[in-house]
Amino acid sequence: MSNLIHLLSDTLANQIAAGEVVQRPASVVKELMENAVDAASSEVKLIIKDAGKTLIQVIDDGLGMSETDARMSFERHATSKIKTADDLFNIHTMGFRGEALASIAAVAQVEMETCTAGSELGTRITIEGATVKSQMPVSAKKGTKISVKNLFFNVPARRNFLKSNPVESKHIIDEFQRVALARPDIAFSLYQNNSETYQLPPAKLSHRIVHLLGKACQAQLVPCQEETDLLKIKGYIGKPTYAKKTRGEQFFFVNQRFIKSNYMHHAVKSAFEGLLPEEAFPFYVLFIDIAPSHVDVNVHPTKTEIKFDEERVVYSMLEATVKQALAAHQLTPSIDFDQNANFNPLDFKEQSLRKQQGGTTEKDYTQFRSPAIQQSKDWERLFEGLGASKKEQERPLLDTEQPTTLTLPSIANQPPSSQEESISEAPTTPKVQLHKKYILTQVKSGILLIDQQAAHERIFYEKYLQSLENKSGASQQLLFPYTIELNPADFNLIKDCEKEICALGFVFESFGKNTIVVSGYPAEIVGTEPQGLLEGLIEQFKWNKEQLSLATNENLARSLAKRSCIRHGQKLSSTEMDAVVDQLFACTNANYAPDGRKVFVVLTLERLGEIFKG
Fold it and tell me: How many distinct structural domains can be found in the chain?
């Protein structure tokens, strides 16, 4: 029998290693920018073409490399950052594995120019598919310039799995933002297809946040700081009123390294308990400085996952620090579960004063209401029979803990109720609004109860979907156009979907860097500020994209319907109720909202009789 086991070739071994490190163009951006930061650079430039598929170039003014170091840097497990096993537990740099350049060179055409301070000549190395094509002396500035061309040119199957340019660009911007936030003392710039996206001078952290994420962040920043013998926490959190329904503006850095940690995220979310709706995510940029001996950063090839040796302690300290920052800025009101949990603290004080004066007002606060909020009046029932606190139940499990399986009944598993029926046409009997949430009317078989928000969402959804298919959305022109400054990711999203958004009835045009001017919006939407409507559309679109697999038209129709429909708590006149009911039963599917929620139920005369018989 012949031998079956053999050693892999260096080329194939590097391609396998590349599968762990280089998953998409953004992976290359991350590794190259981290190397530039580790090289003591004061300025780093990132140049992208074709969402990184054609070119990724990183230019720095760091230490540079000698001729020998430049050649060695492309060997597997070659690094200047660790020499002994003990060094693994005392890592202060971003990169240390010694796999990045070898992995990148295995799946791309790479050219590197580098020169050290005081050297007359630098070195240029050209590598293609892990094979060195040339190495020669060259006149170069101090620092390093690495160009990665035609990523996955020799692994076409991997290249075919890359997403569209807008998606890959979004991932690149994410990685750029993380590195730029980690080191606000370094100047960074980003150019995409010869267009400047970012030009970031060295600055304080607060200024770097605003430069990266937009001026809208400036009003929400709350400083957060604490120092103990074990660790130091510093950074900024966002005011509860600015919480969003989508992830993406949550940044953790441990020893200036960006990390992902659901456990630490839960600590911050717990500190906001009672201030946010259930599905909202608070903004934060938080830095944890801790002795490297207390952290294992060698958990995952991409180095975004880490382990603390005292995770519970770090969790508790992080939660307490965020709570302290909220309290110090009077952002922790006494909680009233009948109120909107996303009110500004001033609203709480105003309502409390009115209660003390004995006045009951009918002032409508729906203008402050977040569309994501759906409150539960029966919140106490959630805690019946539960011995542990809510926080202890929700806290993510550590590796040493065993999960407890809890099975809950699902309405999806219940048989359909005989009390419900399909209504073929709109009832013509008088209608009554119930608790500003439901429309109640008589039908032949009993009582029809309609959820006004779900009904209007269904109406708008079908209308917007038809507008997108026919490219025929009607617009109402604004007397004074709105100028809206967006962050680069949202601006790119708007531009990528410009035709579809205009088909919905929006009218806008670019006005400088990351800025648009809105001069019209969908004609059927009344009483909504165009800027808030468009920004809400973007947020809902991103949330849908994270949670659901939807075509662009479907996503946009759902998103705008969700953000522009009549909401719970909105009082309707008889004419408005008639219009909602008439339009609902003109829909192709009146039974369900776009996300599957029931729009109406029918209580039959038989069922009502059973109720009163007891």
Answer: 3
